[in-house]
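Each field is set out as follows.
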Amino acid sequence: QVEWLKNEEPIDSNLDENIDTRADHNLIIRQARLSDSGNYTCMAANIVAKRRSMSATVVVYVNGGWSSWTEWSNCNARCGRGWQKRSRTCTNPAPLNGGAFCEGMSVQKITCTSLCPVDGNWEVWSEWSVCSPECEHLRVRECIAPPPRNGGKYCEGLSQESENCTEGLCIQDKKPLHEIKSQNIETASDIALYSGLGAAVIAVAVLVVGVTLYRRSQSEYGVDVIDSSALTGGFQTFNFKTVRQGNSLLLNSSMQPDLTVSRTYSGPICLQDPMDKELMTESSLFNPLSDIKVKVQSSFMVSLGVTERAEYHGKAHSGTFPHGNNRGFGTIQARNKATYIQNLSSISTRNELKTTAIFGHLGGRLVVPNTGVSLLIPHGAIPEEGSWEIYLAISPRESSLQPEGTDVLLGPEVTCGPSDMSVSTPFALTIPHCAEVNSEHWNIHLKKRTQQGKWEEVMSVEEETTSCYCLLDPYACHILLNSFGTYALIGEPISDCAVRQLKVAVFGCLSCNSLDYNLRVYCMDNTPCAFQEVVLDERFQGGQLLEEPKLLHFKGNTFSLQISVLDIPPFLWRIKPFTACQEVPFSRVWCSNQKPLHCAFSLERYTPATTQLSCKICVRQVKGHEQILQIQTSILESERETIAFFAHDDSNFPAQMGAKAFKIPYSIRQRICATFDTPNAKGKDWQMLAQKNSISRNLSYFATQSSPSAVILDLWEARHQHDGDLDSLACALEEIGRTHSKISDITETEIEEPDFNYSRQNGL
């Protein structure tokens, strides 16, 4: 006997016409349906034995289909030329089980023209009318100069005015008119006064009756609510009277409650809807937990079924809250907890995005850890016997610089100071950027904030100027400046081929519901500081990096970004329908102004035994670049592999003073400057030094410096702060033919010594 099993259940072909079990024992599915997905097994049996085949997994996928187009939107321009759009979604049907996503555009735009609105305006007042029997005359005006058109505003103000035409001397019923009006006013005010007093008396009486009835109803349960805020739900402290004898509502009315008992337990708690009235038992309340403290004033409260109003206290989160003083934080009430966490998070972020140190004549290097932002103070920039406290900071996400049109903020807003100090030798400020460097597609500007808070342009990167110098590397811009302040890089796309580099990272964590697992996909600027802020947020939320971040080239071609979750194991995990793919408009990605884009997906396990998750995250720009992140992880922290956040972790050395901050020893540096600053019959040798170090633009800036070679070497130090590639510098010197000994022969110990003997005869 041969039979087929689907998910360990026998298949009866007589009950399903779509399934045919042939005489040769093959199983035929005539037309694939979603319900046909499953694990199929063939089983043969006779009187001797029973055999089973290997299970065959059948997954029926569905390719996505477009829905109908929506109606065209209103023209976005209130006046003049603009555009209107319509959209459609890939939900007819939505792609399932790895089916193909819809091809084509999800948004269409067309140009439109709106008539400009014209606000109305009053014409001049008419002449005063003849005095009426009521001793008044009036005048009018109309809103016709011009009348409102195309949605313009109507005129503001009155269209008619009246006034007494006898200056109060007009007589009615043998009394002056002003006396009659005053009597009417007094009568009206008396009526209003008495009506108000009557309403107040009625309200007080109703309140007294309500309070009396309420206290009677509460007294039947043997409990008085002392804190009125408990009526609104939440966690509050209750005080109880002595239990009244014979109350049938109590579990044991003869037991006297011990109001002095106080038990504290720790554990994660998930706050549910306060309207949920499910009775909480003592056993479920007192299960051992780990992170949140729940304090029950008395076990007597459990017997009354009012445990949901117990007071709870938060415990310091590891890595975020201060250690060793949990007791102080434990006294914070629930209504203040959110504010406390928010303030603490912002303080932590600010502390990590600002560095301060005191520098002297020997100079040094200042770094904001793991952000790519650094400041190099050359030797001699600060006067001898002087010391300055210099700081370097990154402004919060909400930058004060708002780019215009399609302009893009390419990196963080960086502040160095003190702003009232100026140096004798240019310092090097390094700011990371997210543009794919190409002068044919980008026009990049450096801007500085004035003391009045406005932003002014300092220079264009391609501009020839002697005030400052910008060297644009693939991932950072190195700027030589003489004055401190707040600086930012702005990119102006010249063509649709301008590329903004985005870093795609996926974080995951378990939710309050133990069966749910949250995936959070971030698309942020490809700068270390943008990734740093995402890491800080995820550490606070308990998220873990699931895969090495990848680079996405996002073009300025107005096409949107699509993020989807693919290849979810069909019988282990599931995702809510129509949520496996999310689409983000182009403008939101392109004009994000340093704010990371965040999309969340919620997966649900079928059973708690499932601890492994494998899927793919696809991030693609329509008609553009695509990146796929392969997720293969354990949802249990103890089994998960740790992925490094930063390639260069410089958090241990935010500030370096003196010789330790420089890769080139001071004695070698002096000899190089003395050799290349001297004019030569073949030309100024510092120009050859600049060209060999890929500095071929705006050489007039170096010509204005007292030591051009020293400034070129400062720029080299800024560019090679992580690798310190002395071999490349030595090769450049050898190619020029001015030296035969390699700088790299200097031992690592000599470079790291804090005090150099400047007469050391190494190098040149």
Observations:
- The longest strand covers residues 499-510.
